[in-house]
Write a structure and sequence with these properties.
With 291 residues, the protein is α+β, with helices and mostly antiparallel strands. It has 6 helices and 16 strands.
């Protein structure tokens, strides 16, 4: 009997790769040292990629500062079960890589290492002593109506059905409403944040929408970041209201058939008041006054 191979098995079967014995806390301290990377988080239905240095990642339950000029990662420690570095592949024209896998061998995040300091930093990672994991009781999420923006992001990281924590504040719609909203953001030059979660890892980016492509795959260019989702994979689009730095704020969630969050669009981080006001007006225009 041949057991099915995991994504980790497939990678190591086709690429020259080395496992790193690095604990999650040491990993997050080293990632910003890599300088510029092409970082990608994808879940099979949505993808977010960015060309930038890492901000120091945070773990669920901690503060999360989302910066416009950095790759922003939110992690559960269980998502960092295996780390693999891969050598450059000249035939495939791919630079060296750093891959993150969970305990089931599923890829949760990857980075192409394109900066000059990256090889030295990877060597340092390989030599770093492994630390004992801190005790943690997991992420406790507040009841509906009391969820703040950080809690909403953490709910997406857990992979639980979002409606359990944040019921929709407007009628549930299809993906075309998101395309309309993205078009308004582009037309009126209003900054917004995008986030994609995958098995304990969430990547977020904030910027202006420069271009929108609509079709079977909806694609967004936002500076060096690229956000995309498969329109056929989106079962529902729902708006939720949570407490943010500027007061109650709307976030648009794209969910799959299981009710789990594929991606989200909103005023993430610390947006200016003018951006929040413009965003809320657009959400109201697209989703209705009762959002």
């Amino acid at each position: 009997m041949t057991l099915p191979r995991t994504e980790l098995d497939v990678l190591l079967a086709h690429r020259v790769g080395t496992r790193l014995d690095l604990d999650p806390d040491s990993l997050v301290r080293h990632l910003p040292l890599l300088d510029e990377v092409v970082a990608t988080t994808a879940n099979g239905s949505a993808l977010l990629g960015d060309l930038a240095p890492y901000a120091e990642p945070s773990f669920t339950g901690e503060a999360f500062g989302i910066r416009t000029d950095r790759v922003n990662l939110r992690l559960s420690r269980s998502a960092v079960a295996e780390l693999v570095t891969t050598a450059p592949d000249d035939e495939a024209r791919e630079p060296a890589g750093l891959w993150m896998f969970d305990a089931d061998g599923a890829a949760v995040h990857r980075a192409h290492l394109v900066s000059e300091p990256a090889p030295t930093v990877v060597d340092l990672m390989a030599l770093a002593p492994r630390a004992e994991p801190p005790g943690s009781a997991g992420v406790g999420l507040p009841p509906p109506g009391e969820l703040d923006q950080i809690g909403l992001l953490d709910a997406a990281v857990t992979g639980e059905p979002i409606e359990r924590f944040a019921p929709p504040a407007s009628p549930v719609t299809g993906f075309r409403s998101v395309v309309e909203l993205l078009g308004l953001l582009c037309e009126h030059a209003v900054p917004a944040g995008f986030a994609v979660a995958n098995r304990g890892c969430l990547q977020a980016s904030v910027g202006w929408v420069d271009h929108v492509e609509a079709g079977d795959v909806v694609g967004v260019a936002s500076g060096p970041a690229r956000f995309a989702f498969g329109s056929g994979d989106v079962d529902a689009v729902r708006v939720v209201r949570t407490h943010g730095p500027q007061g109650p704020v709307s976030t648009v969630l794209l969910t799959g058939e299981d009710g789990c969050c594929l991606a989200m669009i909103g005023q993430l981080g610390l947006p200016p008041a003018s951006a929040v006001i413009a965003w809320e007006a657009m959400v109201r225009d697209v989703f209705g006054a009762g959002h």
